[in-house]
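Fig. S4 source data, part A: sequence.
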Amino acid sequence: MLRREDLINSKEKGENDMRSLKMETVRTRRRFVKDVAVGTASAAIAGVLSAAASMPTKDGGAAAVSSSAQSPAEAEEPKYRKYFLNELKPEEREKGFGAQNMFVVFSDRDIIEGCQFFSAMFMGEAATKTLGHGPHKHKASEVLVALGTDPSNPRDLGAKFEVFMGAEMERHVVDKPTLIYIPPNTIHCPFRVIEVRRPFIFIQSQYAYKLEETALRDLVPADMRNKYIFIDADGTQVDEYVPPSERGKPKPKK
């Protein structure tokens, strides 16, 4: 049976324990605040030192803070740079059709490893005065895309062009943004721009690593063949960078 004295002693002991716990909590909080303050100060100092490393000195150089800093020459180039056409150097990008100013972007296997044939260009009024593309076919599928450039009316192509399809030369006139899918070995073209009210974007994508094309000159009357461009390419060609000063010159015979 509990005695009154035991209850009093137990109460006093509990109060003493609570006071000890509170004092320890206060000490713990003080240590925590002190640690945070020290850590914050360390971070601030680190930030100042980092900023100092990039601050120019009187002679125009950067202030040296650590001897372990990596120089630009030692820095590795980005791992995925090779997949960004805009990050390629001229000698990497200007190969084959990629060296022609007519294309806004162009790539194939020789420019970006593993990339299929792709081109995009702006077509303006001058396109109505240039040669059209003569009838041909490809072993691989091809997609042609035409897009307008009027932000207030994206459904308006701002131009008109014609494309002929099949050996029967079925004529199609395009005056709205469109996508044209051309199955493998399907005869298509002539292609000719008839009218341009506003420059438009024309995209060509072939499901092949290099341009592969078989020209079909016989589908055009002999007296009209000089009005079209004809290309013969078997897809095995390898394009290399040619310095601007050497472009257009005949290649030496091997």
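Fig. S4 source data, part B ends here. The CA atoms of residues 25 and 226 lie 95 Å apart.
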